[in-house]
Amino acid sequence: MSFVDKMEKRIFFKIVRWFAFIVSFLGFLGIILGVFLFIQNFSNIFPSSKVKVEVSDVQSAIQEKEAADRAKEEAANIEQNNNMAIAALRQAYSIAYSFFRNASEPGVLSLEALKSNGLAMDENIEISVPVGDANGLKITARHKKGNKTYSVDAAGYINEVATETTPAPVKDESSSKKADVKDSKIENLINKAVKQCAGCNPQKFKELLWEITDGINEDYKIQYLEDLNDVLKKAPTDKQPEYFGYFTDIFKQKLIEVTTNKEIKKLTALKDFAVYAGTIFGGILITALFGLILVLLAIERNTRKSEAE
What we know:
Helices cover 66% and strands 8% of the residues. It is an alpha+beta fold. Strands 1-2-3-4 form a four-stranded antiparallel sheet, with helices on one face.
């Protein structure tokens, strides 16, 4: 046997055979992985489309609304207190003007002088006289529950001296249109909700429920009514109408989110299917190609043995 034959038989054939085997094996693994991912991806084609609104969601929305109302009321009270401080400052200036006009000789104005000349002091309003001279007069006033300090000068101009930042409110974590509905379960659920809502006008509430249900996707009508009944059952009787309003808003918002996410997952799943199918096809192609090389090598080896015999 020549040197070339020995190299071909003992080295090159082995290298090619092992290379073909390894690549074929990797191709086979690619097929298995592709099939596994392909099957697993089926769940994304039909993603969960359930819209779930818990009582805690409604309670959180109500608490946020109450916190916002309290903040608005507090802001209105602060503004009212600031206006009271301005009114007291105007009164103090009027008294100061009379004090200097009626004085027989130049004097110095003080808070005691303002009081003695008729200044009515509110216990919540703080008035001071930093400068009591007629020419450089300066009187300041602020309400204890306000957030601004005002001053008036000798000419009677009122200006804002300082503004305090009001802390941001802390969130507390916490016509009828009936459609023909074939499924009697919807009507039963509506009637059940009407009975549960003690603080609602039965006729108007029923008409409103029909109107809202007609506007919801057919696949979610029953779920909306079932969840609504659960919320009304757990809600305080005096707040049932409020819970109903917040529940409906939250449900519609979550329905939009679920529908959007569902479409996105479908598109992603289809794209992944293409990738996995390509992986499977590539694995099959590689396995077949290099498997064929192994077969040819085996034929060549057997042929050589036959010739040698």
